[in-house]
Structure formats: structure tokens, C-alpha cells
Design goal:
Number of strands: 8
Distance between the termini: 21 Å
Number of helices: 9
Strand order of the largest sheet: 1-8-5-4-2-3
Structural class: alpha/beta
Oligomer: single chain
Radius of gyration: 17 Å
């Protein structure tokens, strides 16, 4: 087993039903006690169902803008557009509510908006991400990618037909709020795909050559929860107990692989 390791997580990780409504208080703390101008990045469904409005109202978040046009595996052009919108609003913080693609795009835009208007030089490794960006609070609506606790974002270059990660310790969100209530509306197919993604990541983390005394128990706990409860979450989406255990498995697996790395299968 690998004996030397360093751990890098969001300073705040909260899990549980309703924890998303802590976002406003956390954003205020990040702004030193005052309500920051917050720019929201979300999926179209989160906006259309009123989930974003409810979150903002109940958490007393002052939104200065909303971007809900993030495609799957975000292309560089989409992130460039997001950076432009973010800069136009003079936002102090970013709130990401959605699946892995939404959170990845938000993480990239939040860290680059203060220093650049184009992501390609960073994506191609021509420029390093050398400083923190805007503080970001990540709230996942799927149980799969673990993007809310990782240092990277998966982006796509449609011009060259490639997909890769852009990564930096500065991309770790300031807070991750994992609320299983938000996963209840996921359809069975998306639940299965997301859950199997999380399961694969947990297994690969456990057997990784970089696995350590922290990552391996987290990975094992993730596998136990996902294997034991993902089938029920797919069969009965309204089963909050199953949804909660699957969401927790996804979070624990991400906390594991973000430290140990993944393998060739993934």
C-alpha cells in the first residue's frame, strides 16, 4: 500500500436531506459575513422545475445571473461563454447546481474568470492555473461523478475531437453540499448510469497503486452502499433511504478516488 499521501478536499463537505439550504449561510461566510453577488450555473431542469428559485429564496441567496446551457462533457466554447457571462455580472461567488457537467463547467469558469476569457490555453497545458478564482459552492443533482469534491473538470474540444481533464488544486470547491433529496427525480436509466459510474470509480480507487489508509476505507464503504442499494434506487426512485445511501456512496467514492486516482477501465 502507498504510504505517503496528501489529502485535498473542499473545506466544507455537508451531506444529508435538506443540506442544500445551507448554501446561503456558507456563501455569506465566504464573503466575510455579507451576502455576495452570486452567479448560478445549473441544468435546465433545475431551473425549469423551480428548484433553483426555491434554493435561492429559502437560503436568501442574491443571484446576479444564471447560466443553464451547459452541454454534456462541456465543450470549450460553452465554458468560454460561461466565463463571459460571469465576468459581465461582476459576481463575487459561484453556485453550481446540477450533474457533473454543470459542476465541471462552473469550476472551470470560477477559477478562470478573474484571469482569462478563454479556456483553451489552460486546457492544452500552455498556461497553468496559478491562483484561486471565485469561491464556488457545488450542489450535485446526480449520484455519480463526484465532481463536487475533485480538483479537475472534464471538458471537450470539438475542434480536435478530444476530451480531457483540466486540473488544479485551485479548482476544489469551497463547499460541497450533497443533498440526496435532489436525486429523487432522476429517471431509472440516469440513476443506473450515474450509479455504475460511481461504483466503477470506487472499485478502481480501492485497487489503485496510489490507494492509502484514507482512500481505501472510503472506497470500500462506497462499494458497499452502491452495490447494496443502487438496484432499489433504480426500481423505486421515491425510496429516499435508497437514494440517500446511493448518494452517500457516490460522495465517499469521490472522496476516495480524488486522492488515489483511477485506473485504465475508467
Amino acid at each position: 500500500m502507498h504510504r505517503e499521501y496528501a489529502l485535498l478536499y473542499p473545506p466544507v463537505i455537508e451531506f444529508g436531506s435538506g443540506c442544500r439550504f445551507r448554501a446561503g449561510a456558507i456563501l455569506q461566510q465566504l464573503a466575510g459575513g455579507s451576502g455576495p453577488r452570486t452567479f448560478a450555473v445549473c441544468s435546465r431542469s433545475v431551473r425549469a422545475t423551480g428548484a433553483l428559485d426555491e434554493l435561492a429564496a429559502r437560503s436568501r441567496i442574491s443571484l446576479c445571473g444564471v447560466y443553464d446551457s451547459v452541454p454534456h462533457d462541456p465543450p470549450l466554447e460553452s465554458v468560454d461563454a460561461l466565463i463571459e457571462q460571469l465576468c459581465l455580472t461582476s459576481a463575487d461567488a459561484v453556485l453550481a447546481v446540477g450533474g457533473g457537467s454543470v459542476i465541471d463547467a462552473a469550476k472551470t469558469a470560477a477559477v478562470l474568470a478573474p484571469v482569462a476569457d478563454r479556456v483553451r490555453p489552460f486546457f492544452e497545458g500552455q498556461r497553468p492555473i496559478s491562483r484561486p478564482g471565485l469561491p464556488l459552492v457545488a450542489i450535485p443533482t446526480t449520484a455519480g461523478t463526484g465532481a463536487e469534491v475533485t480538483i479537475n473538470a472534464v471538458l471537450s474540444d470539438h475542434l480536435k475531437g478530444t476530451k480531457r481533464s483540466i486540473r488544479s488544486p485551485h479548482m476544489v470547491p469551497a463547499a460541497a453540499l450533497v443533498d440526496p433529496d435532489l436525486t429523487v427525480s432522476m429517471p431509472p436509466e440516469l440513476t443506473a448510469h450515474s450509479g455504475l459510474d460511481a461504483l466503477t470509480q470506487a472499485v478502481e480507487s480501492y485497487i489503485s497503486l496510489q490507494a492509502n489508509a484514507v482512500s481505501r476505507p472510503l472506497a470500500a464503504a462506497a462499494v458497499e452502499r452502491l452495490l447494496g442499494h443502487l438496484p432499489q434506487a433504480c426500481r423505486e426512485g421515491r425510496d429516499l433511504d435508497a437514494r440517500t445511501l446511493v448518494a452517500e456512496g457516490s460522495l465517499l467514492g469521490a472522496m476516495a478516488f480524488s486522492q488515489s486516482g483511477l485506473g485504465a477501465v475508467h
